[in-house]
C-alpha cells in the first residue's frame, strides 16, 4: 500500500489540520517519525485524527519570536504526516509513527474549541513533495557522505555504513536531516529548502559549521 494513501498532490490533502508544535522535530516527505504522546491535549488530538484522516501537521515553535510558552508562535512551514503505526501503553501513552506526506505553509491559525491547535494550510508551494525521489540525480552524494564521515569521526559515533551505502539519495538526505542534532533554525532551513539538492547543501554546510565550531578553530578562506 502506498505510504501516501492516495495523496497524489496538493488538492488531495486536507486544508485544515491539527498541528503539533515540537522544537527540534523535523518531518520530511516519506520520512518516518516515532512519537511518544502523553500530554492530554495531544492524546485528544491523536484520538480525533484516528477518527478522521489520520493526518497531523508537525511544526516547530519559533521560540525566538518572544511569544507565550503556552501558545508559542509557529514557523510558517511544517510537514503533514499520516499516522501509520499506533500503540497504547499500559500507562495511557500513545506510541505512534508518522509517515511524512508533504510540507505545508500556514495560512492562518483557527479559533477552536479543541485543546490543541488547528491551522488552515496550503501545500501549493511544495507540489514536488508528492513525487518520490524527485531531484535525486542533482544531489552531491559524495559531499553528503564526506560530511557524515567527518561528523561521525569527530563525535565517535557508530553508523550502519552498509545501510547508508544502499539508501537512495532522497532517503539518505532526509533521514540524515531528520536525525541531525542541530538547532531549530538549522532544521527549519533544511525543511524549507526548495528541493532535495538544496536540502543536501544545507545539511553539508550546517555539518561543516558545527565541525568548525566544535574544533574551536576559525574557518579559513581558500
UniProtKB/TrEMBL annotation:
Residues 17-211 form the Lon N-terminal domain. It comes from the Bacteria. Pfam families: LON_substr_bdg (PF02190). This is Lon protease-like protein. It comes from Methylobacterium goesingense.
